[in-house]
Write a structure and sequence with these properties.
Layout lengths: L19 E4 L2 E4 L20 H23 L9 H26 L4 H18 L23
Antiparallel strand pairs: 1-2
Helix pairs in contact: 1-2, 1-3
Length: 152
């Protein structure tokens, strides 16, 4: 029994707030907060430089726009073989889901700025690629739907 931590995991001697948690000696927020020194996606990125924080916000925004573009783009042309079409659709789907998970992981930092730019990126991406605002009449089918076809 000697040497065991009887504090039920609280052997650090540090007070823990319900809105934060300790992991590997670093503080991890569990509620939304405002700040420019939070790590996103990678260890020590963006670091303590405020300018790099804004670069990371731009990166998350661009990822969210890219996810929306991949959701609504039509990269496969008619006449392609079913096998090529299926493999291409599967690859594009995997890339889109992977990028969407990166955006989700960035949002899980609970940084309010990251959350806002992720939502803004998805909104701008939908406006540009998913809504009717920038669609040509030929992109809308005879039933009035502007959603991309589910088949090749």
């Amino acid at each position: 029994m000697d040497g065991m931590d009887h504090g039920h995991g609280m052997g650090t001697g540090m007070a823990s707030s319900p809105s934060s948690s300790m992991m590997d000696g670093t503080m991890m927020h569990l509620t939304f907060f405002w700040g420019t020194t939070e790590e996103l996606l990678f260890s020590k990125w963006p670091g303590t430089n405020t300018g790099m924080y804004y670069v990371s916000l731009l990166f998350v925004f661009a990822l969210a726009v890219l996810v929306e573009w991949l959701s609504y783009c039509r990269l496969i042309r008619a006449g392609a073989s079913d096998v090529v079409c299926g493999v291409t659709q599967t690859l594009l789907h995997a890339i889109r889901v992977g990028l969407a998970y990166l955006v989700m992981l960035a949002v899980m930092s609970f940084n309010a700025g990251v959350f806002l730019v992720a939502v803004a990126g998805h909104a701008v991406g939908f406006l540009l690629f998913g809504s009717r605002v920038f669609k040509k009449k030929s992109d809308v089918d005879d039933k009035g739907s502007d959603l991309p076809p589910m088949c090749c």
